[in-house]
């Protein structure tokens, strides 16, 4: 599944979605992860209420299942969610490599429901727990 990261340095999740200089995209699965593409943005990136600056960023993440950001505005978040992409805010800058390693480890086990939903969007295998017996 594809994971997108809002970043200023292409190494950390350290950018507000609307102000990010770059969006980097990786493919991640239980067996590993690899770099897919980097999108660089110039021009006026600061907060100014100009929603049009989000269009190229939304296009860059169109096939991602998850978007990691340091922050995201309400309008941007609504548009990301409308694209069926799960936004995740990190409380402080975090290395992209660490996030990828953690995701890979989770995918090797039983992912939580939100991650299974994100995987379903990207066509990854899903888990069916309907037949699991539940003992009270």
In short:
The protein is an alpha/beta fold. Helix content is 28%, strand content 26%. The chain is globular, with a radius of gyration of 16 Å.
Structure overview:
- It contains four helices and seven strands.
- It has 136 residues and is α/β, with parallel strands linked by helices.
- A five-stranded mixed β-sheet has the order 4-3-1-5-6, with helices on both faces. Strands 2-7 form a two-stranded antiparallel sheet.
Beta content comes to 25-35%
Give the fraction of residues assigned to helices.
25-40%
How does the helix and strand content classify structurally?
alpha/beta
Give, in order, the helices and strands.
EEEEHEHEEHH
Number of helical runs? 4
Low-confidence stretches: 125-136
Distance between the termini: 35 Å
Q: What's the arrangement of strands in the largest beta sheet?
A: 4-3-1-5-6
> What gross morphology would you assign?
globular
Radius of gyration: 16 Å
Mean pLDDT: 85
Total strand segments: 7
Largest sheet: number of strands, sense, barrel closure: 5 strands, mixed
List keywords for this structure.
two-stranded antiparallel ribbon; 5-stranded mixed sheet; globular; alpha/beta; 136 residues; disordered C terminus
């Amino acid at each position: 599944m594809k994971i997108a990261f809002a970043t200023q340095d292409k190494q950390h999740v350290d950018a507000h979605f609307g102000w990010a200089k770059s969006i980097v995209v990786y493919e991640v699965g239980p067996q590993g992860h690899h770099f897919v593409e980097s999108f660089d943005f110039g021009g006026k990136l600061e907060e100014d209420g100009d929603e049009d600056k989000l269009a190229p960023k939304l296009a860059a993440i169109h096939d991602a299942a998850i978007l990691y950001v340091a922050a995201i505005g309400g309008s941007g978040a609504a548009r990301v969610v409308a694209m069926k992409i799960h936004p995740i805010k990190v409380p402080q800058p975090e290395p992209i490599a660490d996030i990828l390693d953690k995701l890979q480890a989770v995918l090797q086990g039983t992912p939580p429901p939100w991650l299974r939903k994100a995987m379903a969007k990207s066509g990854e295998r899903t888990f069916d727990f309907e037949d699991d017996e539940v003992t009270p």
